[in-house]
Specification:
Helix content: 40-55%
CATH class of the largest domain: Alpha Beta
Strand order of the largest sheet: 1-2-4-3
Number of strands: 4
Shape: rod-shaped
Order of helices and strands: HHEEHEE
Distance between the termini: 115 Å
Strand content: 15-25%
Length: 196
């Protein structure tokens, strides 16, 4: 049978088989290899971006560590300024002393617990009922500013007593939040106690 096929037909068959083999090679191996090469190039690009980010983070690391140390020092300083829970009575005494020193009459003090988002720090709501003319009350409030490291004033409600005098007595309800430390006392925790 091969004797009946001429050289021309053999050449055509060889060309067709070569084209089929080339097509099969192109569609099975070459395109798959190109897809794989593109995937590898995408992975290289992604890793290059991560490498650049890592290098930038490494360059920024000393500054970040310094910032963290600064924040930790600030937190430690804040915790030193807080009175320990056991000394909360001294905070109330300091409020009473400030009132007496400025001529403000302290009618009552009440307290209630409040939540605090900071670990080992407890917030206590304190309500003071005061009576005094405005100048004395103003001086008392200015003295409370010295306690700003561990207290905040939340509200101030005043009512006028005898409005016919030039310097009437004000009945004042002052609400504030005082923060106390409940954890292990930091070093020198006694510094910055009430009234500092």
């Amino acid at each position: 049978m091969l004797a009946k096929i001429g050289q021309r037909e053999i050449a055509i068959i060889v060309i067709v088989l070569s084209l089929l083999a080339a097509g099969a090679w192109y569609f099975t191996w070459y395109t798959g290899a190109q897809t794989h090469i593109q995937e590898l190039q995408d992975e290289i690009d992604r890793l290059e971006i991560q490498k650049q980010r890592g290098l930038a983070a490494r360059r920024a690391q000393p500054q970040l560590e310094a910032t963290i140390r600064d924040y930790e020092a600030q937190i430690a300083e804040f915790l030193k300024a807080l009175p320990p829970r056991e000394e909360f009575a001294s905070v109330l005494d300091a409020l009473s002393e400030r009132a007496n020193a400025t001529g403000v009459t302290l009618r009552s003090i009440s307290r209630s617990p409040a939540g605090s988002p900071v670990e080992d720090v407890r917030a206590v709501n304190v309500t003071l009922s005061l009576e005094s003319p405005f100048p004395e009350l103003f001086v008392f409030l200015k003295r409370l500013e010295n306690m700003r490291r561990f207290s905040t004033i939340d509200g101030l409600a005043m009512t006028i007593g005898d409005a016919e005098t030039t310097n009437p007595t004000l009945s004042t309800n002052l609400t504030m939040t005082v923060y106390v430390y409940e954890g292990t006392p930091p070093t020198d925790a006694q510094e910055g106690g009430a009234g500092q």
